[in-house]
Amino acid sequence: NIRLKQLFDMMPIMSTAATRTNILDAAERLFASRGFDGTSIRAITREAGVNVAAVHYHFGTKEEVLRGVTDRVVIPINGTRVELLDRAVADTAPFPPTVEAILEAFIRPDLVELRRIHKRGPAVARLMGRVYSDQTPWIQAMTREQFSGIQQRFLSVLGDALPDLSTGEIAWRMNRIAAVIVNLFATWPEEGMTEVQVDATVDRLVAFLAPGLSAAEPTQPPAGGQ
Question: From CA 2, how far away is CA 190, in angstroms rounded?
């Protein structure tokens, strides 16, 4: 609606930014407690203290609200992943980093972010696990879009570190590792984790997953590419 857009465009920038944040905060709480299907746009507006027009202006649909809720978790995680991976590449140039260093760059940002968002409630962390294990086609499409860039970056570096493995095999193994991370979100403990516990969990995961990621390629591909 052009009139609605003109009205919001006249509002102070900080006011509209605060409205968007309020909507995301409210939606996050409701999605975490009631699930996506159990949460209506009107429930979000009541929780956020805004009108329906504000939700439609900022997001358009409930699906885009969920995209906004997940983006503000995923985007910082992926940004930190790139920083850590670039640092690992620079530290070992002209040789590729170790598989362990690459895995740490991939895994650590998730646990650090989980520890941060746990302050908003353990249900919020578990919400992310439910979303990323959901097989609904539009959610799967959203996930592919959110992670496609980071996937290509890691596949490129892992291809250099594991030259005996095909790109398809590395991608299959990284998808399995991503499933382990999704499980961490979905089962995040009620009491959370301390910084020391996060470090210990990262170390355990890297030690556990690195041998599997580095193993010789099987002669037969997995059925259906799954």
Answer: 45
State the Cα–Cα distance between residues 132 and 147, nearest whole angstrom. 11
- The Cβ of residue 2 has, within 10 Å, a number of other Cβ atoms equal to 6
Q: Specify the length of the chain in residues.
A: 226
| Calpha distance 102→180 (Å, rounded) | 16
What DSSP state is assigned to residue 225?
G
CB 56 within 8 Å of CB 104: no
Q: What is the model's pLDDT at position 196?
A: 94
pLDDT digits (tens, 9 = 90+) for 147-177: 999 999 999 999 999 999 999 999 999 999 9
End-to-end CA distance of the chain: 44
- The rounded distance, in Å, linking the Cα atoms of 72 and 141 is 17
Q: Give the separation between CA 125 and CA 44, rounded to whole angstroms.
A: 19
Distance CA 143, CA 135 (A): 10
pLDDT at 8 over 60: no
Selected residue with higher pLDDT from 13 and 126: 126
Indicate if the pLDDT at residue 3 is higher than 70.
Answer: no
DSSP string across 43-110: HHHHHHT--HHHHHHHTSSHHHHHHHHHHHHHHHHHHHHHHHHHHHHHHHTTSPPPHHHHHHHHHHHH
